[in-house]
Amino acid sequence: MAKMNYQQIVEESPTGIYVEQEGRILFANQRFAHMHGYTVDEVIGMEKQQLLCPEVTQTGEGPDTEKGSRQGESRALKKDGECIWVKESSCEIAYGGKPAVLGNVMDITEMKNREEELKQFLYAVSHDLQNPIVAIQGFAGRLKKKKSQDLGEKGLQYVEHIYTSACQMQQLVSDLLTLSRLGRMKLEYEEADLNSVLKEVMSDLGDPIRESGIKIDVTSNLPVVRCDRTKIYQVFQNLLTNAIKYTRDSPHPEVVIGHETNHSGHRFYVKDNGIGIDTRNQDRIFDMLTRANGAEQREGTGLGLSIVRKIVKGHGGDVGVNSEKGKGATFYFTLPK
Ligand code: ADP
């Protein structure tokens, strides 16, 4: 086999590659230099800081599982002053006997622009759909109430269908709007007592809880956490609404809410003894508009868990589920300390 030419491999790479030591660029391939509007000779020796957009926007996830490795999206600065979006993964290496950082960078500006267009489109569509849906709902409701005599049995059935469908559509549009607003809004952090948040959620869900006859047990005193209170309210509300919805037909419906805290953060769980979710579908249910088997007979939009995931990820936490079909489900989310 021909001797491998590492320089050629690095130059052919579809990503920008660089080595940074003591804050300066020590090595860069052509793609990295051109991505920032420089030649390789110009970029070598520059401070890495000079290649970052002054308006710092980072969505870093690192440090990662492997020692010192990081991954995230950020804004980079080009020679002509333009800011671009980049996705970067980096790790610590030793270079010339000293610690350094090896980075791999991809220009994702076009993808980000398209994503932004889509977000705006989603917001505009869901916003503009609200009024006509409310009108359909309102007029169908009035027909039902005031003209039921004139409508006859069949006519009344049709109006009932229109009304129920409009209500479903209204919920869908409202959830879409919530999702699209979440992408635009900043989190408003405060010290929030999650006991009082949960109490509020349970009191606001009074009717569904009473009607389902469900037993709800809160096993531990929840902590005070620095978070966006309104958004975490929504997380508990969505998880509890689901627990009720997918458990209410069980012989002894029961939901347990609790938490554990360790050095890195808090882990909250909502455990039910309802219909459960088969293992095949467990990863997908957090995606938009995805519903698992068994959900068809229950009202819903398939957006509640996407909202939960977006809020929790926005706080730097994680979400997940442990479940088996027919054996209940335990949803959990973490919040960093
Ligand atoms: P939906 O409006 O359909 O409840 P969600 O996004 O909240 O939408 O949930 C997505 C899917 O995950 C649901 O359709 C259901 O299949 C499943 N699911 C969510 N919570 C539970 C639960 N507690 N028990 C069983 N299945 C659940």
Strand content: 15-25%
Would you tell me the overall average pLDDT?
92
How far apart lie the N and C ends? 53 Å
Helix content: 40-55%
Spatial strand order of the main sheet: 2-1-5-4-3
Overall shape: it is: elongated
- Characterize the main sheet: 5 strands, antiparallel
Question: How many strand elements?
Answer: 12
Q: What integer value in Å does the Rg equal?
A: 26 Å
- List all distinct small molecules, including ions and cofactors, that are bound in this structure: adenosine-5'-diphosphate
Find the structural class using helix and strand composition.
Answer: alpha+beta
Task: Kindly describe this structure.
- This protein has 337 residues and is of the alpha+beta class.
- Helices cover 41% and strands 25% of the residues.
- The chain has helices spanning 6-12, 30-35, 40-43, 109-146, 148-184, 194-204, 206-212, 229-245, 304-314, and strands spanning 16-21, 24-28, 70-77, 83-95, 98-107, 190-193, 215-218, 224-227, 254-261, 265-272, 319-323, 329-336.
- The strands form 3 sheets. The protein has a 5-stranded antiparallel beta sheet. A 5-stranded mixed beta sheet has the order 7-9-10-12-11.
- The protein is elongated, with a radius of gyration of 26 Å.
- The model is unreliable at 60-65 (pLDDT under 50).
- Adenosine-5'-diphosphate is lined by residues 238, 242-243, 246, 272, 274-277, 285, 291-292, 295, 300-306, 329.
- The site of adenosine-5'-diphosphate has 21 residues, from α8 and α9.
